[in-house]
Amino acid sequence: MSRLAAHAFLLVLFSVTVAVSAEAPEATPPPLAEIAPRPEPVEPPAAGEIDAALARGVEFLLNRQESNGSWGSPRNTKGLNIYAPVPGAHQAFRAGVTSLCIAALIETGGDDPQVAAALDRAEEWTFEHLPKVRRANARAIYNNWAHAYSIQALVRMYHRRAGDPKRQKRIRRLIEQQIDLLGRYECVGGGWCYYDFHQGTQRPGSPSASFLTAAVLVALAEARDLGVEVPERLVERGTESIRRQRKPDFSYLYGEGLWLRPMYSLNRPGGSLGRSQACNVAMRLWGDKLATDKVLGAWLDRLFARNLWLDLGRKRPVPHESYFAVAGYFFYFGHYYAALCIEQLPESQRGFYQDHLAAILLRLQEKDGSWWDYPFYDYHQQYGTAFALMTLARCRHDGAWRPAAKPSE
Question: What domains, with CATH codes, occur in the chain?
């Protein structure tokens, strides 16, 4: 049998399997999804330790805000820079990083007048520049990251502007525009990717990436909870694309293009430590019955018991050069979504994981108050710090930032 014929046969078999599973979904997760090494308990952080770290991180972001109100820039290049066609790639990077910083400051900045002034400047920058963000070219679709994280920032901006219905209406329209753009840049097969090196079509023809799709679905869930209409088709196709990439132990393929290599190092549990947190919580938020408390808990156990696999990739300059092909930029990304997984658990189960998460982040804060995991032009300290702030805030046993239960219209 020729290689082409073999691939065609496997594709048909895979399609039939997916169709059967869609018609008769499992009622309970596979046993492998609930088995994990249990980490030893850690010492809870000392009183005030989390708040002190948060204050230093907030100060770092305030000091690193650009004069125009944004965060990040194309400066600080290195010998090996990731593919980033100008200017579109950097417009997307800056919009995504600025959105993360806005969200982090709203969640952790309190009522500090300096924070309020920084957020006002950032809001004006967002209104002016975010509506213009598009794909850089036929290949680079980094704008999908910007659309996702801007929705999360805008949801927080909406609540911050309680009592100002005119401003809230403008924010709401911008959320709707970002959702529309996500519909425009959705992959042909559902879900989202950030590269299309194969077809370069108007609607990306490349396979979806599980972790980007998860980030988009988490953002769309926040928009839904705000009362913004989210197209059902986007959610159904996005969740199905993640479901196709989910293995029996609930590790997830890096992207659908690797479905013929499920045991490639990147797709094994050690390579999926960060992705599984994002995919599990995304599926949970959209009603997937297999994303149970036991599954979320098992993968949190894996994250903390096997954290070294993620940590070994942290700060390495070449993506995927570490064990299990882990890239540095999965570190704070994965821990942020782990914090969201913890929020989904019963309150009685959260403290154990919150303490583990706090222990990791507190020891990694830099002398200047930042956190970073991958040298990325002049964006890495900003996005790393934003992720870490929102994660660490959720390690408080007395709870973190929450929006109002019912947004005003």
Answer: 48-73+81-393 (1.50.10.20)
